[in-house]
């Protein structure tokens, strides 16, 4: 997946700090929840990143997290402000969806404030009660629980 001086690849250990920085910047804006370094190191294999061909700092990331035997979550999608609107978010999501299918996962959900973006990719709004595994695995530890204002969206591929 190469284009315009960037390419999408799986994250590496030296990407953790830039990923953390991007996620923290977005969390301060209220666009997503922060992730600790511990979470990022533990789930690094979940992440795809947008890397410059010249070896500079990554400019975007997205993760696919397995939630249950038939369900995965798309999470932590961030694209640097300079590259927004160029299709990189869609390409990162597509990389995660491709990996989900490879793993045999055909139901992918996200919790988001970007409903229109995900609708363009085929996701549909669902009630959070459709995602009981997510509620018990992550939501109970979330500072927004039980007053979550994110929109649950599901894609069945």
Description:
This protein is α+β, with helices and mostly antiparallel strands. It has one domain: Gcn5-related N-acetyltransferase (GNAT) (Aminopeptidase, 3-Layer(aba) Sandwich), CATH 3.40.630.30. It contains five helices and eight strands; from the N terminus they run E-E-H-H-E-E-E-H-E-H-E-H-E. The protein has an eight-stranded mixed beta sheet with strand order 1-2-3-4-5-6-8-7, with helices on both faces. The longest helix is centred in the middle third of the chain and has 16 residues, at 88-103. The two termini are 21 Å apart. The model has no long low-confidence stretch (mean pLDDT 89).
Amino- and carboxy-terminal Cα gap: 21 Å
The residue fraction in helices comes out at 25-40%
Poorly predicted ranges (pLDDT <50, ≥5 residues)? Answer: none
Beta-strand percent range = 25-35%
- Write the CATH architecture name: 3-Layer(aba) Sandwich
CATH topology: Aminopeptidase
Task: Report the CATH C-level class.
Answer: Alpha Beta
Radius of gyration: 15 Å
Please, what is the CATH homologous superfamily?
Answer: Gcn5-related N-acetyltransferase (GNAT)
Q: How does the helix and strand content classify structurally?
A: alpha+beta
Helix and strand sequence: EEHHEEEHEHEHE
How many domains, in number, for the residues?
Answer: 1
Instruction: Provide a count of the helices.
Output: 5
Please provide the count of β strands: 8
Main sheet, how many strands, which sense, barrel?
A: 8 strands, mixed
What does the average pLDDT come to? 89
Overall shape: it is globular
Please list the strands of the largest sheet in the order they lie side by side.
Answer: 1-2-3-4-5-6-8-7
GO cellular component, one term: cytoplasm
Keywords: Acyltransferase, Transferase
Pfam family, one: Acetyltransf_1
Protein name: Putative acetyltransferase family protein
């Amino acid at each position: 997946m190469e284009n315009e001086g960037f390419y999408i690849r799986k994250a590496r250990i030296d990407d953790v700090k830039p990923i953390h920085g991007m996620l923290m910047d977005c969390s301060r804006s209220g666009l997503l929840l922060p992730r600790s370094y511990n979470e990022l190191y533990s789930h690094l294999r979940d992440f795809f990143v947008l890397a410059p061909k010249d070896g500079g700092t990554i400019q975007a990331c997205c993760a696919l997290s397995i939630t249950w035997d038939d369900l995965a979550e798309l999470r932590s999608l961030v694209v640097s402000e300079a590259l927004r609107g160029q299709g990189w978010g869609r390409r990162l999501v597509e990389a995660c969806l491709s990996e989900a299918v490879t793993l045999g996962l055909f139901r992918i959900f996200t919790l988001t404030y970007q409903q229109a973006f995900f609708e363009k990719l085929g996701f549909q709004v669902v009630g959070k009660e459709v995602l009981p595994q997510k509620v018990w695995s992550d939501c109970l530890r979330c500072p927004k629980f039980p007053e979550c204002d994110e929109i649950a969206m599901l894609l069945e591929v």
